[in-house]
Amino acid sequence: MRIAVLSLHTSPAAQPGQGDAGGMNVYVRATAAELARAGHTVEIFTADPLAPTTGTVELAPGVRLHQLDTSARDKTALADDVPALAAALAAHPAYAGCELIWAHYWISALAGLALTEHPTPAPTPGPRLVVSFHTIAAVKDRDTGAALEPAQRRHAEERIAAGADLLVANTEAEAADMVDLLGADPARVVTAMPGVDLATFTPGPLHTARRAVGEQDADLLLLYVGRMQHVKGTDTAVEALAALARFDPMLAARTRLVMLGAASGEGTDPAAVSARIDAAGLHGRVEILPPVPAAVLADWYRAVDLVLVPSRSESFGFAAAEAQACGAPVVASAVGGLTHVVEAGRTGLLIAEDDPLTWAEGIEALLCDPAARARMGAAAAQRAREFDWRTCAATVLAAVPAAPDALPGTAEARGGGPR
User: Are 261 and 270 in contact (CB under 8 A)?
Assistant: First the structure.
């Protein structure tokens, strides 16, 4: 089968942890590779204005990445350019003959809807539309307690939920949100747990990893991985270390926090985080470093005592899953997909609020208990074996509804009729 994968606002070739690149980029690239390994031809399309590639490049055997031209210079402008992008896709030679569209994020999904809603000139139904939201505006607003997402996005996601042939949820919690908040038909929602690259993210000796990342002299080491955003809880990570210094100064003096991340187009940026670090009196005990490739990131996970994932909203939590695969205990927010990734008390801790003192107490409990960290690390590596990309891709493909015998261009041919 020929499959068109739409990742318009961010290129799967981009380095996760900066700009708009994050777990979704990992997801798109990994699932595309699995689809190709299963014998399908995969054409990925992006319009990312900051993409590191141009034209057409091969990402993996059977997977090609195509850069679409656009005048948009950011994600907001890209959403307004959807009609032109859909037209460019329809005319692109690599799109011809595609039987399935897998759209990632609401901007790509809107373009997918535009492609499937037009009457099909051929005597066969048009491609089926599969959508992975990755994040949902209504969920982010609910979890952060603020209406931060534009109305354009909220309305678009409701329309996408009604028009797509299949919606892909990372967890049962996200599937429930699609039904409850977007009005999706439960029969058109499939839950497919994302995977982890278990060839790269593997357990290993702490001291070896510390030498690899230049931290051989570190005592107690904490790690945050991700973009510098309020929704990712960068402020909580810093304030938790400050709180630890207030009620356990001796432990805090032994502890450093490394943050691997960069600026994003929304929310907090590294300059704001640096100012918060200085205001908290943590200069020299918190270090912000740029994001790194997966092989180096795996060394960081293996090198630390705890990984902090203080997100205020999270559909899955790739940092938590990758950290566990490397045998690192995780302290994470009890939100969204993180409650499925982290097994509370077994592979790490789940914190039900973003209060820095509560976070500091959880961090202290594990830093003072090496035996508990060792048990959790071993259980975390075992848990990570359940995150399998091949199963994820196969689950999605198996759930795609077959094209009914209907006239091209009708609601039934596009998946709009009853199942």
Answer: yes
- Cα 295 vs. chain centroid, distance in angstroms? 18
Q: How far apart are CA 400 and CA 381, in angstroms?
A: 32
pLDDT in tens, 141-167: 999 888 888 999 999 999 999 999 999
DSSP readout, 380-405?
Answer: HHHHHTT--HHHHHHHHHHHSPPPPS
Residues 124, 323: Cα–Cα separation, whole Å = 46
CA distances from 118 to 83, 411, 414 (A): 12, 10, 9
Residue 377, Cβ density class (10 Å: 0-12 exposed, 13-18 middle, ≥19 buried): buried
Q: Is residue 322 part of a domain?
A: yes
In a domain, 405, yes or no: no
Lookup: tokens for 293: 């490739």
Greatest distance between any 2 Cα atoms in the chain? 74
Strands (E), 219-370: 220-225, 255-260, 286-289, 306-309, 330-333, 348-351
SS3 202: coil
d(CA 157, CA 141): 14
What's the burial of 249, exposed, middle or buried (CB within 10 Å: 0-12/13-18/19+)?
exposed
3-state secondary structure of 103: strand
Same domain, 238 and 335: yes
Q: Which of 36, 26, 65 is nearest to 387 (CA)?
A: 26
Q: Same domain, yes or no, for 251 and 354?
A: yes
**Does one domain contain both 182 and 212?**
no
90-122 tens-digit pLDDT: 999 999 999 999 999 999 999 999 998 765 555
Burial letters for 72-96: b for 16+ Cβ neighbours within 10 Å, e otherwise? beebeebbebbebbbebbeebebbe
Regarding whether 164 and 101 lie in a shared domain, the answer is: yes
The 8-class DSSP code of residue 102 comes to E
Phi first, then psi, for residue 120 (nearest 5°) are: -90, 120
Nearest to 346 by CA among 372, 316, 326: 372
Number of domains in the chain: 2
pLDDT greater than 80 at residue 267: no
Q: Which domain range does residue 217 map to? A: 206-384
Same domain (yes/no): 240, 316: yes
CA 209 to chain centre: 25
Global pTM value: 0.90
Q: SS3 letters for 323-345?
A: HHHCCCCEEEECCCCHHHHCCEC
